[in-house]
Amino acid sequence: MPHIRLPEGIPGILGPMAFSPATAKPINELAEVLLRGPNSLSRGEREMIATHVSSENDCYFCQTVHGAVAAHHLGGNETLIQEMKRNFETSGISDKMKALLAIAGKVQKGGKHVTAQDVERARQKGATDKEIHDAVLIAAMFCMCNRYVDGLATWAPADPEMYRQNGKRLAQEGYIHSTDHLPVNTGD
Amino acid sequence: MAHINLPDGVPGILGPMSISPETSKPLLELAEVLLRGPNTLTSAEREMIATYVSSQNDCCFCQLSHGASAAEHLGGNYKLIDQLKENFQTAPVSDKLKALLTIAGKVQKGGKHVTAEDVERARKLGATDKELHDTVLIAAAFCMFNRYVDGLATWQPEDPAAYREMGKRLATQGYVAVGSQRPAAAIAK
């Protein structure tokens, strides 16, 4: 049961976002620009970083939703996402992505865990300053979102089809209007 | 040395923000609404939560800049901020804030560390749903900001006095205003 009163039947981060639309707005805008804005990293790659960090943080809702978004961006390749979560170093992703996921995993533990060697590895595989910046910020952002979702003990449905549908919707329509359909919070 | 090319002499989060304005905008808006928007928790209390979490994450720039902002909201009470960081349970802050700081400390470790008992204790001391929500989100947001600042190995002055001017600006003008100033103007070197 959530730690505060949230609208029933609304999963994961959407419950707190319905409760607090004023903070939902900048969080959704950040997600939109970071995960979908113009970038040399594809949307699928950026959602993979989000998924990896969420899985390291053991946040079921976030890893499953963003895993579904990533899979959708990759033409439905759920197998690759599963392999990536299990062990990204041996999965079928690019060497550059492996290096960026290694950095993201370090950020998940704490910013100071990122070493010059981690960054050098990514650079040698072709990562640019912007790609490194964005990998760090996506990882940091999901350390926020995972704690928001779990810190309020929100409800996470078990049905994989629900996540598939949500993943498709987010992949196609993005984050800015993703909470428009939620009930309006009339306040305490 | 920072892990990416950042402008010289621009401290902490201001460096990465200056090279990524499209992500800075929502980050500053989030800080503005969370720490300075209309709330039953004062800005000082909310900045104290941010400072405490940043100190638990051992992020120098964040704990000193937000500690300064908190202190300036309280008329320059830097001593209280030191007491808070040293041991908030014995600091002269309200019991409700102590209960919220406990929750913030749990969020810093991980969302699932927050227990129903932690929440109940805060409720008994008067915390509302919104105050609980905001405490969790401030703690979570600072777990992001601290990782952004340290994950890029940004340059961070260590002298607390360097943060006083920044604290005054944040306390009086807020995040959107300060964030849109030229980076070098935001803090005295």
**Residue share in β-strands of chain A:** under 5%
Question: What is the number of strand segments of chain B?
Answer: 0
CATH topology tier name of chain B: AhpD-like
- DSSP helix fraction of chain A: 55-70%
Q: How is the quaternary structure best described?
A: heterodimer
Mean pLDDT of chain A: 96
Number of helices of chain B: 10
CATH architect. name of chain B: Up-down Bundle
Query: CATH homologous superfamily of chain A - what is it?
Result: AhpD-like
Q: What pattern of helices and strands is seen along the backbone of chain A?
A: HHHHHHHHH
Helix/strand-derived category of chain B reads mainly alpha
What is the makeup of the main sheet of chain A?
A: none
Major beta sheet of chain B, specifics? none
Q: Over the alpha carbons, how many angstroms does the gyration radius of chain B reach? A: 16 Å
If you average the pLDDT of chain B, what whole number results? 94
SSE ordering of chain B: HHHHHHHHHH
Main structural class of chain A: mainly alpha
Counted up, domains of chain B total: 1
Helix segment tally of chain A? 9
CATH C-level class of chain A: Mainly Alpha
Chain pair forming the biggest interface: A-B, 50 and 51 residues
